[in-house]
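Section 5.1 Outputs to date
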Amino acid sequence: MVTTIVQINRETKERCQQYGLDWECGGDGKFDSEIAIVAESPGDRERQMKIPLCGGSGNLLWNIIRPYGLSRRSVYTTNAIKKQLLTTNNDKYNKLSVGEGEAQLYDSVLMWELAQLPNLKTIVVLGSRALQAVTGHQSIMTHRGSVLTINMSMGVNNERRTVTVVCMFNPAFVMRRPEQEIIFRMDCGRLNKVIKGEFEHYEIKEHVNPTFEQSMAWIERMRTEGQPVSFDIETSSGEVICFGLANDPHEGMCIPLRTDDDHYFTFEQEKQLLLAIEQLVQDPNVRLVMQNGMYDSSYMEFIDRIGVRSSWFDTMFAHHTLYPTLPHNLGFLTTQYTTHPYYKDDGKLWKEGGGIIEEWRYNIKDVCITLKVAQQQLKELKEQKLDGFFFQHVMRLHPHLVQMTVLGVEVDLERRAGLSKEFGYLIADKREQFFAQVELTTGEEGYRPNPASPKQMAELYFKRLKLVGRGVKTDEENRNRMKNHPRTSDEARKLLEIIDELAKLTKFKSTYIDNTLDTDGKIRCEYKQTGVQSAPGRLSSASTGWGTGGNLQNQPDAAHQMYIAGEDCEFSYFDLAQAEARVVGWRYNIPTWIDQFERARTDNTGYDAHRALASEMFNMAYEMVPKEDIGPNGEHTIRYTAKRCRHGLNYRMMADRLATTLRVEFKQAAYLWALYHKTTPELQKGWEQDVKAVQTTKQLFNAYGRRWMLLQAFSDEATESVVAFYPQSTIGDKVSRAIYLCHDDLEWPTGKARICLNNHDALIAIHRPEVGETVRRIMKKHAEEPIKIVDVFGNSRELIIPADLKKSVEDELGKHRWANMVKVK
């Protein structure tokens, strides 16, 4: 009978030897503790001392949980794998150092070891290997924060006992990824609740397999009881297969439309149910709660023609408002705001043969947990005084983005087919140029590496041509380094230029021409309010929830000719002039910039702030600076150089990156970097003030009240986020505000005009020609709405960013294209 740490270590070592396993570190701590902590494997320090969690990662753990009364002497500690594992540069364990069969043998040793602990009630698993050994689950990234129960054999009599398992990151992972420390601390707090007996498992009453009458009664109950209603759909094969509804976080119903192989209700019953659902989601008195409601709302309206009036609360958006740098998926929110364990893999059970009832249960969990999360988030929003910003801006914007997604933009199919064919020929020709240049540069006849293969291109660059970049990456940034390196030959440089051209042609065809359109000939995208982590407030775009379309914000100019306003319609457009640079000037109180930008805005002589900056930087008369970015021989002018410096160096870009951006040698880039900061010393002083404020308060607000929070130790990466946040997020929110301000303007010609595209600093509207002047006037009014900028010294100043207006004109075919825009006053 095992009764001491010495005995248990001797026995586990003997068992490892019997299985042919290495044993480099045993267990430690209190043998009769109720708590066991299982790490993944020993590190250098642990291997040398033969004690688990005694190195740097262990110190991180003990420092966090010591206030909870836990120490290495009060708990039992061990490792899932009893030998040290090698690590690789990408922060993952080298899987070759422990095979699956070997890992299973280590698992059996561990479970025997834990079974010897006489008072064991709680197991803390740190990392994926420990998680899998104890629970069978594989991913700690999804299961961290979960509190599970397992039934295991214990003691000499192998009695079955229920043991609680708390899942947490390996602290060694947290040390390598400091941004994860806040999550690790949250999970340590959950462990404390478990130990103190304050943790309550989350219970949900599920209503599955409802009758038609029960379904109709439940929908009516949701509509009339006056409580917020959590709503969620599940989809498959291009159709909605069930609806989840709950107004109690512990009770919900799934109303199915499909069984495994047929309709759940009769046709007439399904019709009545859909009408009842439509009445519910369009009722102005119903407060709908969703998680990522953009998907549900746009899918229902486009696929089933059921328009959701407007969701009242979106948990994804609320979490982004509260903690923009944390994950916002429901799996993460479940562990942050509820005691329910991770369950999102349950959604796969049906497709893996578990029966569609598993999908219904999963749907009920979604709506109940979403409602619970919303209740907790609403408290936080109010406590942190972010509820006004959330409801008046974030949620106000949401239905407008849904409509932009659903209505889309028409595509000239004939022009699209012509472009696809044209670019197919161009790509084929460019590939042949590439192969010919490869043979010429390497001197190897018949050598034809695949330009789409990173492995084959790395072989070409670094082994055959001996080019010098940074590491062995084959991306555009490293190709630019190779091109600018003095040892690169003219032939190799030409080869790299051909590859750049081929990459651009290929991406243009696959991403912007050959994307999937909807059956009505329109292209659509889903606008994401949480899509740009580095600049909360800016929208991103991607393909729709039903798999068509793509990113419409970064469309190259050559693609614009495919997009048309449609019959009897035209485009109008505004673009904010030097928007972020103006915010930077006001934020950091740069007098020269403020004067130049204001002169450019108020006088009508065409004064150019970028030319003025070049004039300052290069000590040249303003009149001598070229008006264009490209000179007569195709070279970049000093105006272009000054403009690129302003766009990049405002955000702490360093000389090496500037060299890549401008395609100049590092020495020249270093000179320009120093010259720019000498010309504009206020920038670095402003950065210091912002950084100092964040180090003190751990947060920063943009001009509209959006918050960025520091949730990790301060670092260079955090500094870059601080510097970029205020200007980028302010402009993102400003442009988004213009969408709903235009649509809600009393003079807006509703039914004859709509904002259809967000293009970062610009918006594009489709409208009837007779209302064009009204549309542009309203767009300009809201685009140029003054912003109250509070600079880093606490002074307030109004900023008006001028909006350049354009409208489309008919081409030779009588079509209004995005490409055919002319400036208007």
